[in-house]
Amino acid sequence: MGRVEGKVAFITGAARGQGRSHALRLAEEGADIVAVDACEDIATLEYPMATEADLRETEKLVRERGRRVLARKVDVRDQAGLNQVAADAVEQLGGMDIVSANAGICGCRPTFDLSDDEWQDMVDVNMTGVWRTVKATVPHLIEAGRGGSVVLTSSIVTFVGAANVAHYNASKSGVVGLMKTLSAELGKHRIRVNAVHPGNVATDMLFSESTLRVFCPDLENPTVEDLRERARGGDVLGQGWVEAEDISNAVLYLASDEARFVTGISLPVDCGRRIG
Ligand SMILES: NC(=O)c1ccc[n+]([C@@H]2O[C@H](COP(=O)([O-])OP(=O)(O)OC[C@H]3O[C@@H](n4cnc5c(N)ncnc54)[C@H](O)[C@@H]3O)[C@@H](O)[C@H]2O)c1
């Protein structure tokens, strides 16, 4: 019996990285998966987003784990698109129990060099996109009356602060506020709401050229190994980063009934970065 056997999990940003990892980990533990991703680049970002081929790969990998999957190309800024895939999930998979609002973007620039468009895209995807995701899904959980677990992806940056990510930090801090209010409102429906706060995670976001430059501003062509050396010094376990699966295991715990009395918390998975 899997730890989320028979449940249905709605996951945004599921085409690659942490979102794909969450989909596979939850599927391995018995959940059917709704995998949502925009699969479109965003003009204000310096690194590419996932592709439709990535989303199809997630779909295939979930199927290989013996679970049902509904994969859909939808942007978390598109409320009508999210509403439609949530309604289709209820019809085709028999409801939803777990929501992982994971889709997110990152950028790095000194605060007063940020363009209005950079600020707006960050807030629209990372904060308002999370709100749109819960708006599309949680009413179905309430209506079904069988409780549920909502996990919002924030970031360790909300604890430690960091230069050159004002728009990112503001958007991820907004997610924490949303998590706290939702956990207060939804407890009476046995729906728990928590946030996971990843530290550095080995995904395309961390390994993008723009992030490498932030960690190694003094190097002309910084590499992933340069990043590893710099990042190691930033956490008490001397790791530098964790794997996507480490975040998925935290999401799995929060999603499962093992966390049945856990709501309204911020769970860092950061090798102790915030205390180092
Ligand atoms: N990688 C890190 O070091 C790190 C650290 C802290 C927090 N996070 C957060 O973890 C989450 C997952 O990031 P990741 O590390 O897997 O990065 P990633 O770039 O590999 O994956 C992000 C996914 O979200 C999708 N996406 C982006 N904008 C979207 C939109 N508007 N609508 C739907 N899908 C969209 C992308 O296509 C991609 O598949 C993000 O919220 C990120 O902010 C990452």
UniProtKB/TrEMBL annotation:
InterPro entries in UniProt: NAD(P)-bd_dom_sf, Sc_DH/Rdtase_CS, SDR_fam, SDR_subfam_1
Keyword flag Oxidoreductase: yes
Superkingdom of this protein's organism: Bacteria
Gene3D superfamilies, per database record: NAD(P)-binding Rossmann-like Domain (3.40.50.720)
Pfam families found in the cross-reference section: adh_short
Keyword set, alphabetical order: NAD, Oxidoreductase
GO MF, one example: oxidoreductase activity
Protein's UniProt keywords contain Nucleus: no
Family: Belongs to the short-chain dehydrogenases/reductases (SDR) family.
Name this protein carries in UniProt: Mycofactocin-coupled SDR family oxidoreductase
Organism from which the protein derives: Amycolatopsis acidicola
